[in-house]
Amino acid sequence: MAKVTEEQVRDALSEVTAPGGNGNLAVLELVSGVVVRDGNVGFTIEVTSKQAQTFEPVRKAAEEAVAALPGVISVTAVLTAERPRQQQRPQQEHGQGPAQGQPQTSLKELVPNVGAIVAVASGKGGVGKSTIAINLALALLSKGLKVGLLDADIYGPSIPKMLGVHGRPDSEDGNILEPKENYGLKCMSIGFLVAEDTPMIWRGPMVMSAIEQLLRDVNWGELDILVVDLPPGTGDAQLTIAQRVPLTGALIVSTPQDIALLDARKSLNMFRKVEVPVLGIIENMSYFACPHCGERTDIFSHGGAKATAAEMGADFLGEIPLDMDIREAGDAGKPITAADSDSPHSKAFLAIADEVWEKARVLSEGTEARAPKIIVQ
Ligand code: ADP
Which residue's alpha carbon is at the smallest distance from atom 6 of ligand 1? Predict the structure, then answer.
């Protein structure tokens, strides 16, 4: 099959019209970035927050026009809602202007009924960040809190599978999405916005558009705490999220060995740079307890995260062992905290949840006053 080109995508978008100026204008004029990879197409349409609601049909029409091109496998168009300049928050620090292309909407206004927003981050992939995020969210829920889980891991959105939810989210009015729910935990995933096997290059602004939609266009209801599963690493996408989403705080997940801890340090420094409080470090796959003989083995060494936390002046929140039950429960869509609330692992997650909630509750009272800090790299 012929491969679709960026030029063809742009041509198709120049045929779609949108209200603007004194009449209609080509959607192409509002498109800020087109990514084409192996038939998978992504682009953003920049509108003002006032236009955002009325532009949904335009966004759909643009997607449909591109989808009709031969060789297109998937299309993701996202609206960026930029606030008019006079409503933007002032830059507080160093007199630096906003980084180019960064709209300054206060995202907290998109979720006025959400108390605290806590990110779960890791310096690299595969350390169990999503496993920690989901079990932490369930442990917070078991404390009687109203909890949501936002899966923002663009590189591998695994939360729906781990929570045992399937299919696309429902929407009564075609605009606001209903979060998926299991075990009483409300969940929304960036994976619902893109086809599962869609390889995409996500740049910061694109990630933010998608995350804005997942905050604004989802019926989260009233939440005490929203846990956000971040993409691993410290690149452009992660930095943009860290500086734009009004995070109450961040948790860093690491395995105990040196190489993983190097990345954990980078992650910690990234949050510090944008003045997001780091609530603490969690050591995952901390040790292995043999289910047959009970002997404990420190597969990836042990205690590295605790030592790093102490060295960097961060709190150490606890350790979770490498355990077959944790892996199997996650793969089966029944995380350990929901599957067996009496297990020692669930108790470890509950202890971490206690500490996280205690810190988040206090900090969230001050989050609204904290303007996001933009840094120029
Ligand atoms: P990440 O989000 O950091 O990429 P995941 O949470 O997706 O990592 O975990 C990667 C794999 O490791 C999954 O199969 C998961 O079930 C497994 N895993 C994570 N933590 C543990 C643990 N403590 N014990 C056993 N398996 C684990």
Answer: 128
Radius of gyration of the chain (CA): 21
Angle at 85 (CA atoms; ends 84, 89), nearest 5 degrees = 110
Q: Are 121 and 250 in contact (CB under 8 A)?
A: yes
Superfamily of domain 107-366: P-loop containing nucleotide triphosphate hydrolases (3.40.50.300)
pTM: 0.73
CA–centroid distance, 127 to ligand 1, in Å, is: 6
Among protein residues, the one whose CA lies closest to atom 19 of ligand 1: 128
- What pLDDT shows up at residue 294? 73
Q: Which of 258, 264, 262, 238 is nearest to 316 (CA)?
A: 264
Q: Tell whether the model's pLDDT for residue 24 goes beyond 80.
A: no
Higher pLDDT, 46 or 114: 114
Q: Which part of the chain has CATH 3.30.300.130? A: 6-81
The pLDDT tens digits for 179-190 are 999 999 999 998
Residue range(s) of every CATH 3.40.50.300 domain in the chain: 107-366
Residues 339-356, mean pLDDT to the nearest whole number: 94
Hey, which CATH number is domain 6-81, 3.30.930.10, 3.30.300.130, 3.40.50.300, 3.10.150.10?
3.30.300.130
Distance (angstroms) between ligand 1 centre and the Cα of 132 equals 8
- 223-229 and 249-254 strand pairing: unpaired
**What are the tens digits of pLDDT across the range 68-93?**
999 888 787 777 655 333 333 333 33
- Residue-level pLDDT at 82: 53
Angle at 351 between CA 144 and CA 230, to 5 degrees: 80
Pocket test for ligand 1, best of 127, 130, 131 (most atoms within 8 A of CB): 131
User: 105 near 89, Cβ under 8 Å?
Assistant: no
Exposure letters 191-214 (e unless 16+ CB within 10 A, then b): bbbbeeebebebbbbbbbbbbbbb
Owner of token pair 């890791």: 122
Residue 150 CA to residue 184 CA, distance in Å, equals: 14
Query: Which residue from 189, 287, 322, 327 has its CB within 8 A of the most atoms of ligand 1, so it is best to mutate?
Result: 327
